[in-house]
Amino acid sequence: MNRRFLVVSVLLASFGCASAALGIGPLGPPTATLKQGQFGVALEYAYSDSDLELSLGTVDATWKGALSNTFLAQLGYGLTDDWEIYFPLGAANLKDADLDCSYKSAYGFGTKITFEKTENTSWGLLFEIGWRKNNDSGTVDLNDLGFAVTDYSVDFTYHEIVVALGPTWKIAEGIQVYGGPFFYVLEGDVDVEAAGVDTTLDLSQESMFGGYVGAELDICPNSSWYGEFLFTGDMWTLGTGIGWKF
Question: Are 21 and 68 in contact (CB under 8 A)?
């Protein structure tokens, strides 16, 4: 095993029992909520815990059980009464016992289409893609490999894709519940520098399928609060937001 694989193996062993706590932000209803020509603004927060896969050649590790906080501001626009687009922008961090990545950029694009309506229920399709960056630095002891304690840096660059399908159900005046299954993909790179060695690891999710459930409550004319729970076999997220239409 060459020097690069030795160093990366130690870093994977150091961080492999921790996690890269990545997770999607709040999705909101899977159906369009803005009328044609209407704008919407939302402030959102998400708290996530997830397991991810790191790989470099034949060296693999699963990162487990850490936390991420995501803060987003979102601008939406109704293209038609049944089709809207939106643009989230904000910041997210990564943190566990070994990594302490400060808040860095989180941004994306999404769209929602309502394709079926009844008196109290509508069905829709949601697509969202988001990009994020995070980094951390510190020291690692490589004496067992014949190197001294050395500085290291770790840079995460990745994107997430979500496709969700489901209903929005009006259960009372000003109260709706929503949710459904979703397809989830995370792909990216982790750039590691240590002991004079630079290398890049592949980053990906473990589970591709999950589900979510949420509720939306009108709090005054043209504004609402929503909260939801999202999950796959290896990730869960609690999300909430407040939205305004104008």
Answer: yes
Residue ranges of domains in the chain: 3-245
Tell me the per-residue pLDDT of 200-216, one tens digit each, with 9 for 90 and over: 888 887 788 999 999 99
First to last CA, the chain: 61
Strand duo 197-205 + 52-56: pairing: antiparallel
The answer to whether domain 3-245 has CATH 2.40.128.90 is yes
Q: How far is the C-alpha of 16 from the C-alpha of 11, rounded, in Å? A: 8
**pTM as predicted:** 0.87
Which residue shows structure tokens 């520098």? 193
Phi, psi of 15 (to 5 degrees): -100, -10
What's the rounded Cα separation, in Å, for the pair 10 and 101? Answer: 19
**In this structure, what are the phi and psi dihedrals at residue 81, rounded to the nearest 5 degrees?**
-65, -20
3-50, pLDDT tens digit by residue?
Answer: 666 666 656 655 554 444 455 789 999 999 999 999 999 999 999 887
By C-alpha distance, which of 157, 132, 150, 173 is closest to 14?
150
Beta-strand (E) ranges in 81-99? 83-95
- State how far the Cα of 37 lies from the Cα of 80, in Å rounded to an integer: 7
The residue among 130 and 24 whose pLDDT is bigger is 130
How far is 151 from 65, CA to CA, in rounded Å? 25
- Among residues 188, 225, 192, 212, which one has the least CA distance to residue 44? 225
Give the tokens for residue 174. 């000003």
Which pLDDT score is estimated for 126? 98
